[in-house]
Description:
The protein is built from seven helices and six strands; from the N terminus they run αββαββββααααα. By secondary structure, the chain is of the alpha+beta class.
Amino acid sequence: MTTKKQSITTKLGALKLKPEWVKHRPGKAGMQLAYMSGEQYIQILNDIVGIDGYNWTVSEPEFIRNHDQQIIAVRVKGILEVHKLGVIREAWGTHDIRDDKDIADGIKAAETDALKRNCKYLNIGLQLYFSEPTMPKEHLGKKRPAMMTQKQKDRLCAQLESAMKSNNITKQDVDDFFGVVETTKGHIAEYFSTNKGTTPADLAFAVANHKREAVHA
């Protein structure tokens, strides 16, 4: 391994997200979800790999339509080639389309989604996939529900997976429901802790309804 390649690999492996890079947006059940902007991902790539150290390309957009032939989502395949590491990554990015006026913005959002999914394989933004959702500041003074044990989280996720199969729900449907790139056990645990009495079957039903509403929106 060359000295330059070793240096880049070391920097990527040791990368820690700075607080000023991370933003928050509202999610389901009053949760606050952490994310980084697409521009921030590009800045990190430029700083560590170099502007001339990688190539980013996206495919022509593919539109997903409902039974009425209305466009309900768009997806693109992004290819990230890091010349200095000899690495090529591919990932699909998607975004829901609510209105014909949203198509241009939807394509840009899908491209950003693909970039983020590719970058996680380089340890850029990977921590965000495992971060626990938080409550808004106005809720910080209120009593929080008791934290679930890992065994409880595993049991709920297993039950949810079974309910998903019964309702023909995909993992992407769950991600869309929570408004995240990849749903973690922390997201699911927070949902059940906040919505007392809710069962995995109830959540699967809610996801199915959300999916139908997106299709017919």
